[in-house]
Design goal:
Structural class: mainly alpha
Number of domains: 2
Distance between the termini: 29 Å
Order of helices and strands: HHHHHHH
Number of helices: 7
């Protein structure tokens, strides 16, 4: 039940608010540290680049959530949807027009900013990001850092000793076997049903 002063999601015009500063920083800081580790840029440039990147991704996700009348899903959903949409858009632009990824991202960023400006005018105030969503975003950022660090070290280990992949292969096969066994035995999550 909605209050008379608060319009329902279906009655609210398309809104593209800027992501909150806290949500942007929670994701941008771990990513900027990861970019800085590459040694390509100093820390302050890495931080600026990642803040810009996160703003575009969060804004794209927020735009798409609003277009789907699902803005109540929050900052974490906007981040995930924005990452997916940004990756697909940059890939499509780069592959279709033979552009550099940085040029494709700049075009995508211009489209997102333009749509944000157009739809921001007829919007209500954005809701603040709750603490639990900020923690979830921080976990996403930390998981990304850990995964990227693992992938980076894995390639060095594989080049030094290809047998290093054996434990990974064993765990993948074990997961397939265990998943298949659980599905045959009727374990509800393995079947995709919620009994």
């Amino acid at each position: 039940m909605t209050d008379a002063a608060t319009p329902s999601n279906a009655d609210t015009p398309l809104r593209a608010p800027l992501p909150s500063a806290a949500a942007t920083l929670v994701v941008a800081l771990p990513l900027s540290w990861l970019l800085w580790l590459s040694g390509a840029v100093p820390l302050y440039l890495a931080a600026a680049a990642m803040v810009l990147f996160v703003l575009i991704v969060q804004s794209a996700g927020t735009l798409l959530l609003r277009a789907a009348h699902a803005s109540d899903m929050g900052a974490l959903a906007a981040w995930v949807l924005g990452i997916f949409a940004t990756a697909m858009a940059v890939y499509a632009l780069a592959a279709s027009f033979e552009l550099l990824a940085s040029t494709a991202f700049a075009i995508w960023a211009a489209v997102v900013v333009a749509l944000g400006v157009v739809f921001h005018r007829r919007a209500a105030a954005a809701r603040p990001v709750p603490a639990d969503e900020l923690v979830a975003l921080l976990v996403c950022g930390a998981a990304t850092v850990l995964w990227c660090l693992g992938v980076g070290t894995m390639m060095g280990n594989v080049l030094d000793n290809p047998w290093w992949l054996l434990p990974t292969a064993v765990w993948v096969v074990f997961g397939w076997v265990l998943g298949g066994w659980a599905q045959r035995k009727g374990y509800a999550p393995a079947k995709g049903s919620a009994r």
